[in-house]
Design brief:
The structure is a homodimer of 428-residue chains. Chain A is an alpha/beta fold and 428 residues long. Helix content of chain A is 43%, strand content 20%. The radius of gyration of chain A is 24 Å and the shape is globular. At the A-B interface, helix 10, helix 14, strand 13 and strand 16 of A face helix 10, helix 14, strand 13 and strand 16 of B. Chains A, B: It is found in: Cytoplasm.
C-alpha cells in the first residue's frame, strides 16, 4: 500500500478495519508463540535495522527536508531527525527488549480449593495494542518491540511528518518477523497521513483494538483520552512536586530538587513545583531558590518565596497547575505536611511526587496519603521511568488507576486468565 | 432527600454531581482507614440490617405491592421480594465480607535497584465505584460492602421498582458507617427513580467515578457498555461451552455436563453449548444427549446430534451464539480439538469454557488456546463464581481483559501505587 495524504472515507474505513482484522488474527498466533521465537524475531529486527540503516536515513532525510520546508521548528526537527547513532540506539533497544524475560505464561498465583480444584492465574497477552505517536520515528521500533514481547499485535500510527522514516523502520521490523516465522501482520504501520485514521483507531476498529497507548504531547493525549472508545494507557501531564519537609536535610534537598527540575526539563517526571515547609523556610528556602536561579531556572513564587530572592517573580494562580516542561518552577511555602499533601492533591496530576525528609513518620505519611502513581522519599522525581524501575523498557507512564499505573513495561501490556484443573468436580 | 420519579434536569445534574463530589471526598478518608475500622463498620451494618429487618420488610412489601399492581411477572417479583430469611442472608453476607482479609496496603512486589532505591508496589483502593443494578434489593448491601472493604466509596443506583427496599437497607448501612466513625457518604444510594441518573453516572459525574459495575441482565449491561465514558467491569453474556474431547471419560463427561447445564440454568456460568468430538460420538453422544433430555433439558442439535435422539430439535444458526439462561442447550459434533477451539472462539463470549478429557496434551492445549477468562478441565463451568474461587464474595464476573478478568472480588476492586524510598538518589 502506498502512503497517501488523504483517502476517500469509505476506502479509509475499509483499510483500517482490514488492518484491525489482520491484527486480531495475528494476535491469536502471537499469543501462542514461545518466548524464544519472539526473541529471535526481535533480534532479527535489530539486525535488519542495522542492515537497512542507509535506507532508513535516506527516508528520514526526505521527511526532514519536507518538515524544514514546511517551517518546522528546531525542537521538532530534532525529534524527527535520525543519525547513524540514533539508528544504532534503535537497534540496541530492540536487543534490550529481546533480552527481557517473557512475561507470558508466568503463573501469578496458584491455589487449590477444598474440593480439589487447582486454580492458576496465568499471564496472557492483552491482544491488540494501538499506539498513536508523533514525530519521533524510533517509537515505531520501541512500541512494536514491546507489544511483540508481551505477545500482542501492534497497530502503529506515527506522525504524518515522519511517515517515510517510520515506513523504513517498519520494513526492517517486518523483515525480522518474517525471518522468525511470525506473522507479518503482528506489527502494522498505518500507511496513510490521513488524520481520520486516528479517529478510526480511537473508535476501536470494530472491537479489534484492546487498548490505545498515545505517545506524544498534551494535545495528542487529550484528544485520545477524550475520544477513545477503548481503554487508554496514558498520562495527560506530569505536574510533579518536590516537598521539602521540616525534617529535610538541606544537602539532600538541594541535590534532589536540582536534579528533579533541571536534569532534563522536558520529561514528564521533571518537577514543576517546589513546596518548602514553613518550619525550615528560614534555613532552606533561600539556598534552594538561589541554587535553582543560579542553574538558569526561572522561579515563580508566592510572597514568601519572592522575599527569599529578588530574582523570583510572582506566581499567578495558573502556575500551580502548569506543566512547564522547561527551566521554570513554581515555588511556595506551605504550613506543614497536611498543607503540602492538600496542595499536591489539588493541583497535581497524580503522576510522581517526592518528599525530602529524615523524619520516618512524615515519610510514611506522605507515601501513604499522596494519591499518585509514584511517590518517592529522598529521591528525584526524574526516576519516573520504566528503565529506572528495572522494567527494561517502557511504552509510557500511566496515571489511570486501572490495570496499568506508573511505568508501562512489558508486564503491563499483559492480561491474565484462570486455568482450572479438576477431576470431575461438579458444583453442589 | 426524598425519592422521586423524575426531577428537573438541572436539579438532577446538580444532585448527581454533588453525590459524586461527596463520594470522592469520602473516598480519600476511606482509603486511609485501617482495616479493623472498616470491618467494624461492616459488622455494625450487619447488626443494623438485623435490627431494622422489620422496617426493611415493610418497605419491601410496598415495592412488591406496586410491582404486582404494575403487572410484574413472577420471576421479577421473586427477585424483588425479601423475606426474613433473605434479610438474614444479607446480614450474613456483610459478616462474610467483614471476615475477608483487607487487600489494601499489601505489598504486591518489592525490589531494590542497583542505586539503592527501594521500590514497592502496594495495593491501594481504586477510589469511587459506581454500581448500577436492577430489582434485587440485596445488591445494595453486597456491593456497598465489597466497595468499602476495598477502601472505595460506592455510588449505588438500584432498580426503580426496588427503591424503597434499597433505601431501607441503605439506611442500615449508613448506620454501620456512622457507628464505626466512617463517612456516611462512603456508601450513597441515588435517591431517585429518574433514569437520567444512570446516564449521569455513565458520564462519570465529572470525573468522580473511576469504574462502573453493572449488575443485571443483558439489556442493562449492553447499555452500560455502550454509553459509559468510564471503565466498566462486566460481562455481557456467558455463552459457556463444554467440549467432550476424544479422550473424555464418559462418567466424568456426564457428571460435568449435567451440572454445567442444569444445576442452575439462569446463571452466567451455566453451559449453553455442548461440543462432542466426532472420535467419541458413537459412544458418548447418545448417553449425554439422552441424559440431558431426561433431566428436562431441550436439546437443539446439528444433524449428528439429531440422529442420536429423536427428541432433539434442529439447531438454527442463531443457537450457537444464544445465551439461553434456561433448560435448553445447543449441541454439535466437532472434528477434533482444533475445530472445538475454533467454534468457541467464534461463538463464545470469552467467559468460561471447559474441556472433558483424560488426555494431558489436549487439556493443556485447551487451557492455553481458549481465550476466555476462565478455562477448566474436567470441572463444571458453574464454578465461575468468586465464592467458588475462594474470593469470599464477588461483585460480578468480568470478560474484559484489562484490570479485572473473571470473578471481581475485593482484590479486583483495588489499584496499586509505587512507593519509592531513597537516601538522596539523583538520576545521572
Amino acid at each position: 500500500m502506498t502512503a497517501t495524504d488523504a483517502t476517500a472515507p469509505d476506502d479509509l474505513d475499509a483499510m483500517m478495519l482490514d488492518i484491525g482484522a489482520r491484527a486480531r488474527a495475528s494476535a491469536r498466533a502471537l499469543a501462542l508463540t514461545p518466548g524464544p521465537r519472539k526473541d529471535e524475531a526481535l533480534k532479527a529486527m535489530a539486525t535488519a535495522v542495522r542492515t537497512e540503516a542507509e535506507a532508513i536515513l535516506t527516508a528520514n532525510a526526505e521527511d526532514v527536508a519536507d518538515a524544514t520546508a514546511g517551517g518546522a521548528d528546531k525542537a521538532f526537527l530534532d525529534r524527527l531527525a535520525l543519525t547513524p547513532e540514533r539508528i544504532e540506539a534503535i537497534a540496541a533497544g530492540l536487543d534490550v527488549v529481546a533480552g527481557l524475560s517473557d512475561p507470558v505464561g508466568s503463573v501469578l498465583a496458584a491455589w487449590t480449593r477444598p474440593n480439589g480444584l487447582m486454580i492458576e492465574r496465568v499471564r496472557v497477552p492483552i491482544g491488540v495494542i494501538g499506539v498513536i505517536y508523533e514525530s519521533r520515528p524510533g517509537v515505531t521500533a520501541d512500541a512494536g518491540a514491546l507489544c511483540i514481547k508481551a505477545g500482542n499485535a501492534a497497530i502503529l500510527r506515527g506522525g504524518s511528518e515522519s511517515l517515510r522514516s517510520a515506513t523504513a523502520i517498519h520494513r526492517a521490523l517486518v523483515r525480522g518477523l518474517n525471518e522468525a516465522g511470525l506473522p507479518a501482520d503482528a506489527i502494522q504501520l498505518v500507511p496513510t497521513r490521513d488524520r481520520a485514521a486516528v479517529g478510526a483507531m480511537l473508535a476501536g476498529l470494530n472491537g479489534a483494538i484492546d487498548v490505545i497507548v498515545p505517545r506524544g504531547g498534551k494535545g495528542l493525549v487529550a484528544r485520545v483520552q477524550a475520544e477513545a472508545r477503548v481503554p487508554v494507557f496514558a498520562h495527560l501531564e506530569g505536574i510533579c512536586h518536590v516537598y521539602v519537609h521540616a525534617g529535610a536535610n538541606l544537602d539532600t534537598a538541594k541535590a534532589v530538587v536540582l536534579n528533579a527540575k533541571m536534569r532534563r526539563t522536558g520529561i514528564c517526571g521533571a518537577a514543576e513545583t517546589l513546596l518548602v515547609d514553613r518550619a525550615v523556610a528560614s534555613t532552606h528556602l533561600q539556598p534552594l531558590v538561589a541554587m535553582l536561579l543560579d542553574a538558569g531556572c526561572a522561579v515563580r513564587g508566592d510572597a514568601a518565596v519572592q522575599a527569599a530572592d529578588r530574582r523570583v517573580t510572582a506566581a499567578a494562580a495558573a502556575d500551580w497547575s502548569t506543566e512547564y516542561l522547561d527551566a521554570i518552577i513554581s515555588a511556595k511555602v506551605v504550613d506543614g505536611i497536611e498543607a503540602a499533601i492538600a496542595h499536591i492533591e489539588r493541583y497535581g496530576s497524580h503522576h510522581t511526587d517526592a518528599i525530602i525528609t529524615e523524619d520516618f513518620t512524615a515519610a510514611e505519611r506522605f507515601l501513604g496519603e499522596v494519591d499518585s502513581a509514584i511517590v518517592l522519599v529522598n529521591a528525584s522525581t526524574q526516576f519516573a521511568d520504566g528503565g529506572e524501575f528495572g522494567f527494561g523498557a517502557e511504552i509510557g507512564i500511566a496515571t489511570g488507576k486501572l490495570h496499568a499505573r506508573g511505568p508501562v513495561g512489558v508486564e503491563q501490556l499483559t492480561s491474565f486468565k484462570y486455568k482450572v484443573r479438576g477431576n470431575g468436580q461438579t458444583r453442589p
